[in-house]
Fold each of these.
Amino acid sequence: MNSIFFDKLETRSLDQRESENLAKLKNLLFSAQKNDIHKNRIKGEIKSLVDIKNIEVFRKSDLTQKQIENPPFASLNLKPYNTFAHIYRSPGPIYDLDGYDENWWRFARALYAANFKRGDIVQNCFSYHFTPAGLMFEEAARILKCTVFPAGGENSEAQVDIMSQLKTTCFVGIPDFLRILLEKAEEKKIDLSNLKKALFSGGPLFPNVADYFKNKNIEFYQCYGTADIGLIAYEASENDGMIIDEDIILEIVRPGTGDPIKEGEVGEVVVTVLNNFELPIIRFATGDLSSFLSGESKTGRTNKRIKGWLGRADQTAKVRGMFIQPSQVNKVLINCFKSNLKGRLTISRENNRDNMILKVESDLFNSSEKINLEKKIVEEMKKIFNLRGESELVPPNSLPNDGKVIEDIRNFGEKNEN
């Protein structure tokens, strides 16, 4: 690999990528329909990638209970699980798997963009136990012919010694752990000057921590993935967003729905993995928030980009003993307007009583129909939430662009924060 690109997929035209992804999606669905659970989620014909909305979203938040009811994989797997390469158990708990295909998790693309290459010695500080993170990056580094030390995320003193003795050149793990190692090396006056590159995932990279690495002359990138999906997106240049992996279809939808939102608006990440058939991942709602960036990467990679991880979409709140979910807010809006409008339910507390107001962006915010529509919204809230609340029509684009459908601003006090 002498190119700046991992493969030719990264520079495809929009038309070529969409055509090839559609063919892969149809092939995936043909196989998936052998399983009744997947088959019943397909509600219409798939003639173009736009038609992917005809497939029901499957939420990660539902997966734990379904696996408990029917272990280990909720009968979603197409092949017997004793034919998989590994079975993992991630927090939730959720069972995950991988197969025998090379680059199963697809993280080699992210390491390649971070300039990992043959001759590098990689200290892999992700766990090799229970969860797949360690093996995800092990597989990727070996594909690039790097040498890997399987370190895990503990024993910082020993790791610093090993990093110095092996002359480690690359780090993979969470950002905070690398800072711990570097500070430990400073304290013990241990030379880690061979360490030049890092790829981070699994935790936020705060600005002050990023500045610390820059002062250490470490070239670092971030990537975004999950134990269910593998690689979702990766950085290839500073301040250039995250480029979507070539073997997935990524959608941004309004939380609690399967409805796509406009470019730049924050919503929930929904992913379809095109190259894994053992346990199909089709329109899988991750529970993570992000948004699309306009244009293409300055690196020459032509796939869409996202801002990266922007928080969690699971905004379930308990009000007066009743749980309210984003999907219920969406149902109120659909019943009232028959269209995909943006709404925000704000929950507050005054005089020892929980209060709710559902604000809805609408062109009718200043019309003669406003009062009647607001009354209708209140009636639907009572039916669907089984709770009384208030409503207000507001101008288009007036609600915050943060992906929140439910905003809980009640002050529970320090004793109830957890």
Note: Residues 359 and 392 are 5 Å apart (CA to CA).
Amino acid sequence: MSNTNEITISVVLPNYNDAKYITRAIESVINQTHKPLELIIIDDGSKDNSIEIINSYVQQYPFIKLHAHEHNLGTIKTMHESVHLVSGSHMAFIAADDWFLPDFLTEAYRVFKTNSELAFWSCASWSAYDQNPDALFATPMNYPKTQNGLLSKNQAAEMLYKIDSWFCGNTVVYNTKILRSEFGPNVCLDSFADNFLYRVLACKYGCGFTPKRLSVWRLRSGSMSNNTMKNTAKLQKIYTMALDMAENRYQGIFSDKILKRMRQRFMFDVLKSMWLSGDASLSLEVTNHIKKNSSSKFAYYFAISLLYAASKSIGKKALGLVVGYLYFRPYDVLNIVKIKTIQKYR
């Protein structure tokens, strides 16, 4: 694909009561080796001193703009709104508690300069625990490429089937025009809206990937995604809507085998949610799914048996604390177990 138009990248920073973190996020954008066209900070009704900190940067840097909400709308609605505020041909989101490494936008610009019509590009990521943000470790994911490159929509679909989502939201840069046309229907998926959107875009348009680690994802126990993961009922509702959208609204984009694999992985996450919340009950939906998918029965029943055994031995509350600790500390180990288990019982 050739590029005939100027590539400009807007960065959007949604913020809600993250005055403790936002300075590092803003500074990481200011210090990019390739400067963005603009940094739009959307404050979603913060009650702390976020506005004061943001305004101090707005006064110093003309490319930084503040868009403030009087009332809190939520992260996903704020992100959807921002798609219509930016001026750049391409755009990236940065969470108030994450940060870019200096060459993040330089690498994105390099890719889009010769492939401007890509739906999105992403890269590998570092992670850091909130308690020690300077101790970086590799975000535990299987990535689709070991070298810079593009994935056609068929290649992206095959990678989704083999390794599941490799997209880190803190590393994605979008084609603004395509994002505007595709984001809206996914807002109802709450904390899963962006990850589901990556799957749609990858399988519909193709995407780019760079294995360099150019951004940092801060792991916080009270984050939006972690709160959803510990709310089994909410998680099941989100996944049910996502599967319905994949099968109906996006009919033809996802193959039958990808839909089947997606369903298996979603149910695995529901089980993980049960461990985190200490809830040993299965919904009718999960039970029916197990009955219909004999290939995954053993894995599910084995997990449930362990859950019940542990509950009886140490109690549900103690179990929740143990599993919660395991989930938040050796983050890489649990994610590798998840990936390997799904691949074994496919």
Note: The chain is about 50% helix and 15% strand.
Amino acid sequence: MTSSARVVVFAYHEVGFRCLAWLLARGATVSAVFTHEDNPRERVWFRSVADLARAAGAPVLVPSSLKDPALVARIREWRPDVIYSFYYRNMIPREILAIPPAGAFNMHGSLLPRYRGRVPVNWAIIHGERETGATLHHMVGRADAGDIVDQEACAIGPADTARDVFLKVTDAAVKVLARSHEAIVEGRAPRRPQNESEATTFGGRGPEDGRIEWDRDAASIFNFVRALTEPYPGAFSEVRGQRFVIWWGRPVDLPESERLAPGRVVSVEPLIVATRDGGFRVERLEWASAVAPEGRKFITGERVG
């Protein structure tokens, strides 16, 4: 049944691209692909689900809402055996989830029940996790809360960026899909209830959530920087009202005689900013475009924040 299974896919981002590519290579009949328009304010570093679907001859839909009764009726007409969601950013209504006889399944970028919600990879790095992964689960009316089908873990290296980890999670997602697809379309997908006592949930992040809190320890600031560095908007701070983005840096130990209050500039060359437990050496920064050259200077002892 796997080669002839009718599938409707909701997908975006690199996970969406890779999982859709796997389904197409497997011979699944992709009746339609729902995706998103790229946001011009977002740095798009991942491959296009829409382009992949069109190249395969699958209809591509980018609706503003999934609640249109005509759209729900159209999905019913396609008679999908299964619905997949691979990093699709909107909640899929219950009316749609109930359509396929084999069920509806979502691929989430964490080891559920931990890190439910938005941008789980970035949050895991911010919190200093050493492991994350991909989870395929039954979709229910509540986000990321359905029974687990399968999971694959991957390591978060001590200097991994969010992009590094996201690519590992993408590889894990494809492995999970490959292990699970046949059982899903045959109606025998495993069900392992999530332990609600272990669940954590986090919201989305925007560029303005990237302000560095210098009164934290240097390791936490490093995690924050690597979680937000390119291709994400970056962690930032300000000096004399002028904003700069820190793309990379490292914690440094400082002798007690050199320690200053958190947020104070310890040295200019190299640029080291004091933290709660030492210092953070800034190795790559970028000033806001509106800052004049004479304003792009630091003074030992002054505060950034």
Note: The longest strand covers residues 242-252.
Amino acid sequence: MFDRVTPQNDWPAMERRILAWWKETDAFGKLARQNAGAEPWSFQDGPITANNPMGVHHAWGRSFKDVWSRFFSMQGRDLRWQNGFDCQGLWVEVEVEKSLGFKSKRDIEAYGIDAFVRRCKERVLRYAAVQTEQSIRLGMWMHWDDPADLRFLADHIDEAEALTVDTPAGPVTATVEQLVGQLGKWPWNKSYFTFADTNNYLIWRFLKECHRRGWVYRGRDVMPWCARCGTGLSQHEIATEGYQDLTHKSPTVRFPLVDRPGESLLVWTTTPWTLSANVSAAVGPELTYLKVRQGTTSCTWPRARPRRP
């Protein structure tokens, strides 16, 4: 006899029960320790901006990433298990400007650029905590920072005096600015943040080397400019300067017609890797097709290629 299966399942309760069981048994920790030192498989998360709670599209992408990481961990590979947060850029600045009621960049100057930067870091830390909690609820396995630690740093971001803070590496005495700059490295060793000192110093080092080699110069570039944000429109920059027209070979495949011996459809494709799984060919009832003969074989293809929806 089997137990009765109720059709009225409480899926959120089931999720929380599984998450609690994982935590109780240290399932992720055991897997990470078991594979430590084995053949590595490098997977570094392309970070989403910690500017608001995750959207459905973020959760979808993170689910795929988690499945991919778990697949290789099940093969015994050693992963870094490191999540990332994008912390910089116009998105964060605009949201902070909204929260402060700013109308122009002059408001930032009057407020103080250093204070405004701290507000941006504060926002990132708070929403990194939110996104961490959401990712854990999603079931994503990573070496996560404690959301309480991120909120603590956000709460004390304006304090200039050194504090003694309990970290995963033990008590550390430093200013909050210094502790925030070390996220992703010792003493945290968890999620990486793009505003961390290592990332910023590497960017300046790269620019310094470009300058040393004479690759940095002053010039002019005509492009649309956003007067509100005080920056060029990057979408235009990519569309006009980042793309090139290239010619590539593409296959045209012959699909024999079952009920017409010696006749085939000619199908042109830019995605030949899907051919092994194709089970049908779409034919447009309102399109004009041409029928040609080559030797003893007849082939048919559309005169004009239809637009893709």
Note: The two ends are 53 Å apart (CA to CA).
